[in-house]
Design goal:
It is a single chain. By secondary structure, the chain is an alpha/beta fold. The strands form two sheets. Strands 1, 2, 3, 4, 6, 7, 8, 9, 12 and 13 form a ten-stranded mixed β-sheet that branches. Strands 5-10-11 form a three-stranded mixed β-sheet. The chain is built from ten helices and 13 strands. The chain folds into two domains: 119 residues, Periplasmic binding protein-like II (D-Maltodextrin-Binding Protein, domain 2, 3-Layer(aba) Sandwich); 136 residues, D-Maltodextrin-Binding Protein, domain 2 (3-Layer(aba) Sandwich), CATH 3.40.190.
Length: 302
């Protein structure tokens, strides 16, 4: 089972020891406005997080842009962007650079575990793939049309290049769409193609738009490389991510550039504690901060 991270510390964790009294013009955890940037592949679940957060804390105004992972990390270097949600944390060199420029290191951690879903047309007969078969498609050895959310700078591209291609190049059969939604639309219209998108775009059975997608596309099953029994194939799901059965799972990180208890701290705590973690769970991602268990019980009738 995937090891859970400890629960996020409560509001006030980020206040620096020598900061003294917080200036009146600074935002607080429940009052103020900030700009954040979110990896586009996480848009559906983070949009839901912000919807509930704003309802709970109406005096906050969190302005969000959904961009590629690289664009969000670049935006974090600007004063205007306080927080990003991406698929990786900071490297040591990046953390050191922020320490030099800001006099403190941004806080970062894992909020949940997502997966890259391999989507196929509903009429496609072959729905099982080994990692080697996916590698052969991505490097062009097998010229099956493959579609992803852009060809450069996205977390999906980075993950697949690192984990499957080991830094190699994509084949000419791999093309980039404008967005995750465009990947889904292209697979709907091209029965021979396969697509790669974040699971929060296609895995929520409660979402009306995603239920419509599920009538025209299917989630492919990928060979479980961690299973003791051979020949096991898994779809991306909360359970297969949690237990390490789906091999294309990935973390969902926050990176927070804030050294006082501001709106960013409040949002980080919201997503790390019960309400936010339940939103991740309801979106069929695997929460990283809280372990929700189903317990059976009996009611004695009087």
């Amino acid at each position: 089972m995937r090891k859970r991270l400890p629960i996020a510390l409560l509001i006030g964790f980020l206040i620096s020891c020598g900061a003294g009294k917080q200036p009146n013009n600074r935002d607080t955890t429940i009052n103020g406005a900030i700009q954040i940037c979110v990896d586009e592949s996480f848009q559906p679940v983070i949009a839901e997080q912000l919807k509930v957060h704003h309802a709970a804390y109406p005096n906050t105004n969190i302005r969000v842009t959904y961009q590629s992972e690289a664009a969000c990390l670049k935006a974090l270097q600007d004063d205007s962007t306080r927080m990003v949600v991406v698929a990786r944390g900071l490297t040591e060199n990046e953390a050191t650079a922020y320490q030099k420029n800001l006099s403190f290191k941004p806080l970062y951690g894992i909020l949940a575990y997502d997966a890259i879903a391999v989507i196929i047309h509903r009429d496609r007969k072959d729905s099982l793939f080994t990692l080697q078969q996916l590698t052969d498609i991505l490097n062009g050895s097998n010229p099956v049309p493959a579609i992803m959310d852009g060809m450069r700078a996205t977390s999906t591209v980075r993950f697949l290049k690192d984990s499957l291609l080991k830094g190699g190049d994509f084949g000419k059969n791999v093309v980039g769409a404008l967005s995750s939604k465009d990947v889904i639309t292209n697979v709907m219209n091209h029965p021979d193609a396969i697509g790669f998108v974040g699971m929060s775009w296609v895995g929520d059975v409660y979402d009306k738009e995603q239920r419509a997608y599920q009538k025209k596309i299917s989630l492919a099953r990928i060979e479980c490389t961690q299973c003791e029994e051979k020949g096991i194939y898994a779809k991306p799901s909360q359970a297969t991510i949690t237990y390490g059965q789906y091999p294309l799972s990935r973390p969902l990180y926050y990176i927070l550039k804030e050294n006082w208890a501001g709106v960013g701290t409040g949002l980080m705590n919201f997503m790390s504690l019960e309400r936010g973690q339940l939103i991740f769970r309801r979106a069929f991602l695997a929460p990283a901060k809280m372990d929700f268990k189903v317990r059976s019980g009996k009611i004695k009738e009087q």
